[in-house]
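In this supplementary section we document a worked example of the pipeline. Step one takes a protein sequence of length 499 as its only input; no multiple sequence alignment statistics are reported here. Step two produces a three-dimensional model, which step three serialises into structure tokens for compact storage. The input and output of this example are shown verbatim.
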Amino acid sequence: MISLNTIGQKLGIAQFYDTNSPFLNALTHDGRLATKTHVFIPLPRCQGSIPDFVNQAISNGCQAIMMDHAMAQSLRDVPKHVLLIVPDFYQALATIYPLFYPQLPIHTVAITGTDGKTSVAHLLHQLWTLSEKPNASIGTIGLFSNPQLIPPFIMQDGMTTQPQPILYQTLSWCKNNSMDHVAFEASSHALSQERLDPLRVPVAIFTNFAQDHLDYHGNLYAYWQAKWKLFTHCLADQGPAFALISNSIPLFTHDHKRIKPNVSVIRYGQDTGAISGAENATYRIISRTFKSQRVLFDVRGRQWESDISLIGGFQIHNVLAAILAFICTGGTLDQVIPILSKLTPVLGRMEHVAEHNGANIYVDYSHTPQGIEMALQALHPCTSGELGIVFGCGGDRDALKRPLMGQAAQKYSDWVVVTDDNPRGEDPDHIRQHILVGCPSAQSISPRSAALAHAIDRLNPGDALLVAGKGHETTQTIGHHVLEHSDQDWIKAYCQNTP
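The serialised model returned by step three reads:
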């Protein structure tokens, strides 16, 4: 609990409360959640009406609202004694968060990219766990840490990056439970909305970049600017810091100039030639089976071979990112090399879920054109027969990518079944028709269960089936209804009951 007097003094605001000033114990950026024990901090880039949020907070009993002069000018009839008006909003954020969360993990890793964020975070979590470093990963599929530890607060399900107060609360909880190694996903939405402020991390990873979320960002340039902000704004200002950037991402001179002088840049990925101006780390796949790959790694002048129980070159790409993050957070190659063979697939990421009639069935979260392409290309080398795919697209999201996903599916597979993903508020048939523009020879089958049954029934020995789009998800949203559905569970049950 911190007194409002103390908060005002730390923020450089003249003391105007008496000795009975209220004590507060939490921060929030959501006026609907603000209570008498919160400091409500409306964000300049929040979507919605700041006066409405402020009035909601006051009606909830909130006694402290922090904002700058420009934001305060938009308010009328708000009691002045509840306003903490600061001259520099972002400096005030950097002051008030450490008041409530003074101790955070030493080694924090933020991961952005169109695809691969969850995989890298979870693979790094595995490496830290296997090397007996207390740690956690936070992202799309939840919080992973010591299974005996349950946080005393609620994280919002399905959010790639938690709101600032929850993220800080989670990091503080990790530190208080002796976890000094934490990886978390940084979405373009969170970066655009400045949800990571004022956090500064020592390690940031950029997995890849391709079209997605144009419904929110408007165009690819704005999407790129949001992602790149992780490296220009969110990396630590002092001490050693590392930018781990896939060598598939082209960077220009002006991009490099925006990176802070204390940041070391490491380019990583497939062995396609060194990139000048940065340290390079590479891999080359030597052989593949339908469940594993043998890989030659070249990191910091050391080469070695490892057997990795994952499918697809992009999975090895993610493993290499995790290896580098492990090293940049105090680990060594001698620690990490012996444990690489113990890595296991991430839930819903190129996950081998069943064999049926001599064919292999995989579930993957790929929900972008590039994701579809990478997943299908990953399965070609270990498929002797035909390669099929079942997928759909989410409703109320980037519609421009739908035909592009259809094109990728048709180009890299032998047959395509288009079905429903999470149509949400859109007409499922309309979404499927939009996808079919890119794959006119595909079959359109609804509901998803019927599409899965049809695809599994046509499998022959040597074939492979990719079920894409939902990955780890256990529900399907159709209109206002949230239905239970897990691709993995449904496929396993169907294969067990079908001769």
